[in-house]
Amino acid sequence: MIAVFNAITNIAEDIEKNVFVECESFLESNLTEQQMRESVHKYCSEVIQREFKKVKSVHGFIGKYKKEYITINESGKYKISYVAIDNLDLLDVNFSLGSIFGIYESQMDAFHLKAAMYITYGPTFQLVFASKSEGVIYFSFENGEFIEQDPLNLEKEGKINSTAGLVHEWSSEHKELVDSFFNKGYRLRFSDSLSLDTHQILFKKGGLYSSPSTKSFPDGKINVLCEAFPISYIIEQAGGRAISKKGRILDMTNVTIEQNTPIYFGSTTEIQKVEDSFNS
User: What biological process terms from GO does the record include (predicted)?
Assistant: First the structure.
């Protein structure tokens, strides 16, 4: 696990430097905005794959958009899912962005998820690591290295209401749920980057993130293996919960590579209110 962790820190430093700090090679390439996004995504994916190929304990990996598991070492025990860059559309507005990693042992299902990590780039360059033995730890980048900081834990109730999906596609039930939190003084904090929105809830010690089923995404928008499982794992290790209308996210079984899900995660009080709304 240490070798996998070190590989992800190498990934973080490379992408932060070459995409978010010294980004001239992308900005001065005379590419269209779409071509630049594709170029950035390709670069980040290549960095991730290059670093994991150096780790003997990694059996293989799969990216959210690759949809194909690549075996690199038959004797390795870790299978890794990743999101190379979380929502490239936000590059245009100089937002922080992130990468997400799920570290599975032997099988890619929630039961065999041994650790999860995400990186936030740009103005907030940090790394968050979660495991059952360590809890949730974040690392800040200072003087050329990642420095371990205090553990992250959610309180029973927060004040953030992070709401994904197009408002005009929400069901009346979901709109009523969202409004009920705003009416209680919750603050809107939504970047449309899953890693950054998770980061907000963890650092503010609570709140609710919701990505419901919509007309455009009736099965949800969050990929289970690459996004929902790792983020749910991190939230649970911090003392929170992550669910859909079908139950606990980490209880999902027989998941396919392409499968998406709606998701609601955050503090226990908020998730209880979400469950109450499902049953009303």
Answer: fructose 1,6-bisphosphate metabolic process; fructose 6-phosphate metabolic process; fructose metabolic process; gluconeogenesis; sucrose biosynthetic process
CA 110, 85, 89, 181 torsion-angle sign: positive
Strand order in the sheet with 263-266: 187-188, 160-163, 208-211, 263-266, 241-244, 247-248
CATH topology of domain 160-279: D-Maltodextrin-Binding Protein; domain 2 (3.40.190)
Helix axis angle, 33-52 to 2-15, nearest 10°: 150
pLDDT at position 24 over 90: no
Query: Residue 27: its pLDDT value, please?
Result: 60
Radius of gyration of the CA atoms of the chain, in A: 18
Question: Which CATH class name applies to 2-151?
Answer: alpha beta
Tokens describing residue 267: 């503090």
What tens digit of pLDDT does each residue of 153-197 get?
A: 999 999 999 999 888 999 999 999 999 999 999 998 888 889 999
Name the pTM for this structure: 0.95
